[in-house]
Specification:
Elements (H helix, E strand, L loop, with lengths): L1 H17 L4 H14 L5 H5 L8 H18 L3 H12 L4 H18 L2 H19 L4 H15 L7 H10 L3 H26 L8 H8 L10 H19 L1 H4 L3 H16 L3 H4 L5 H20 L1 H11 L5 H19 L1 H18 L8 H13 L8 H12 L6 H29 L2
Helix pairs in contact: 1-2, 1-16, 2-16, 4-7, 4-14, 5-7, 6-7, 6-8, 6-10, 7-8, 7-21, 8-10, 8-21, 9-19, 9-20, 10-22, 12-14, 17-18, 17-19, 18-19, 18-20, 18-22, 19-20, 20-22
Length: about 425
């Protein structure tokens, strides 16, 4: 069964990468193949936290998509778009830097998927006003979201899994992850002109038109905006304090969406207009295929074999986890990879020398998985969401267009993370 599960995943991944067939159709077909054989049972698909569909991700996305749909009716996205364009004096590069910084900081405080859902409409409106291609801006933002999300416990789903298994606190993530995230973010911003050449030319007449706009006139429904602001404040507070409240972020998002639907009194067609149904189905299919790899032991065998090559050397083990986590997370999605690796890292941390910082392996896993999410178009949930938004907005981004840029960002990020781990935990202790 393990060979069949691997074959189905590899074939499906090839079709997704080729981008000739709708990726949602490919994912659902692959999921059907592993179910019909059967490689994985319905109980494993619908009820298992280890191998099943991650309903927290699905319903978090659904709830936030509904909230964004309602918020869009207020005109606030156009307001922010005009405001940011005017503050940047109409310069596309300065606009990209501003949006990248906002995205990175917001991703650390919330999570990268929620941030992408909120920042994408603003980006599309800015680019529409300036009549420039939005694709480079959307890619830069999703790269920034995966980088910024690595800084905190709540910023990226893999961090939540690692914190739960290793007993790491919110403050621990800030102390150990935020410094390298800040360094990587600065280098990433410096890379933008070379990463997206030719994307910063704009018609001076369009800039003049934007500078003449009054952003306050973009607000269409101030009362609804106030209601949305209150609900969003509650949702964000719920995200930050979800552990203390014993509520998953998905439940918080659905509650917020439900409240907005009731108080806005909008028609169903309006608040469901922004839901990316294809994206949600793609995630479901991908989770089933990856679940089959987990259930058959394919991922565990790969991860364990890679770490055993280090022969018990603490530095090699740390660098091995970092080096393996980045490419594997980028290929199969970092959430199931981290879920599979955590018991292996927990075992390794008890067998290595006592002079190793007790949490060094966990930080290597977090950095590899979080930064590795930028490697391909399916490496992180935020990537899939952003590509779905881009396609619907008429700015499609192909798998390879994203991956060509993602490889560069990931290689640079890991190249910076490796000396950071070495210096912090092996040189200075």
């Amino acid at each position: 069964m393990i060979y069949f599960a691997v074959a189905v995943f590899v074939i499906a991944y090839g079709f997704i990468a080729a981008d000739r067939i709708n990726k949602t159709v490919v994912a659902l077909t692959g999921a059907a193949a592993v179910v019909i054989l059967p490689v994985i049972s319905s109980d494993d698909i619908f009820y298992s936290r280890k191998t099943g569909i991650d309903w927290d991700v699905i319903f978090l996305l659904l709830g936030m998509m509904i909230i964004v749909s309602v918020l869009r009716q207020t005109g606030v996205f156009e307001y922010v778009a005009i405001w940011s364009a005017k503050r940047a004096k109409g310069s596309p590069l300065r606009i990209m830097i501003l949006l990248v910084l906002v995205t990175a900081v917001a991703s650390a405080l919330l999570d990268n998927v929620t941030t992408v859902l909120l920042i994408a409409p603003v980006t599309l409106l800015v680019c529409d006003r300036l009549e420039i291609n939005a694709a480079p801006f959307l890619m830069a933002e999703v790269f920034a979201s995966n980088i910024g999300g690595a800084a905190t416990l709540v910023g990226d789903p893999p961090n939540i899994i690692i914190a739960s298994r290793a007993g790491l606190s919110f403050n621990a993530f800030l102390v150990h992850m935020a410094p390298i995230v800040a360094i990587v973010l600065v280098v990433f911003i410096l890379m933008l002109p070379r990463l997206f050449p030719g994307s910063f030319t704009v018609d001076p007449d369009r800039v003049a038109d934007v500078m003449a706009l009054e952003e306050h006139e973009a607000i269409q429904d101030r009362r609804l905006l106030i209601k949305c602001g209150l609900v969003l404040a509650g949702v964000f507070a719920g995200f930050i304090g979800h552990s203390a409240l014993n509520l998953e972020p998905s439940v918080v998002a659905l509650l917020g969406a439900g409240v907005l639907i009731v108080i806005s009194k909008m028609e169903r067609s309006d608040y469901l207009s922004g839901v990316e149904w294809e994206t949600l189905l793609f995630f479901a299919g991908l989770f089933v295929m990856v679940g089959a790899l987990v259930d058959t032991g394919a991922i565990a065998a790969l991860a364990k074999g890679a770490t055993e090559l280090t022969g018990g050397n603490a530095l090699l083990t740390t660098m091995g986890i970092l080096g393996v986590s980045a490419p594997v997370s980028g290929i199969i999605d970092n959430i199931p990879y981290v879920a599979t690796m955590t018991p292996i890292v927990a075992e390794l941390s008890t067998t290595l020398p006592n002079d190793l910082h007790p949490d060094a392996l966990w930080w290597a896993l977090a950095l590899g998985a979080d930064f590795g999410g930028n490697l391909t178009a399916v490496g992180a949930s935020a990537n899939v969401v952003m590509l779905g938004i881009a396609r619907r907005a008429g700015n499609p981004i192909t798998f390879w267009e994203f991956t060509r840029k993602g490889i560069v960002v990931t290689v640079v990020s890991i190249a910076l993370a490796a000396p950071y781990l070495w210096l912090r935990y092996f040189v200075f202790g």
